[in-house]
Amino acid sequence: MDLDFYRKQALQKQKEHKKFLDGLKKKPPKNLDYVVQETHDEVFDEIDCLQCANCCKTTGPLYTEKDIERIAKHLRMKPADFEAKFLRVDEDRDKVLQHLPCFFLNSDNTCSIYEVRPKACREYPHTDRKKIYQINHLMLKNTVICPAAYEFVEKMMKNVSR
After folding, report:
1. What is the pTM of this model?
2. InterPro entries, alphabetically (predicted)?
């Protein structure tokens, strides 16, 4: 997967993508959630995250208290020890990874804690979300990081009938 190509394409199309996503917010089509789900499925039939894992290499998820408790239990650690070993508090006062790429990313791009991974990881890149227009800013950011998010917006532009 040519990440550099996708990144350049996404940066070139930021204005076009923003205009499209803003249009969805101003006047969402009645069947938007259906089109979003169909487009999401279409994209992930073509793109295999294990070929990329750029999200795990370049952006860390937020860790909720539930995430911390679940993962710590899975690793047979105390939540406080898990936090001390892997997390830090960022400028927004969120708990995030101390270092990237993610410590739990294996060399074959699989996740060593996949079954108990953080909620943010399970939901990324948020392309199957209802009322997708509520996260336009995040979606634009994700198109630069994630080839699937880029393809999703490109396909949405074709799939949404105006």
Report:
1. 0.92
2. Puta_zinc/iron-chelating_dom (IPR005358)
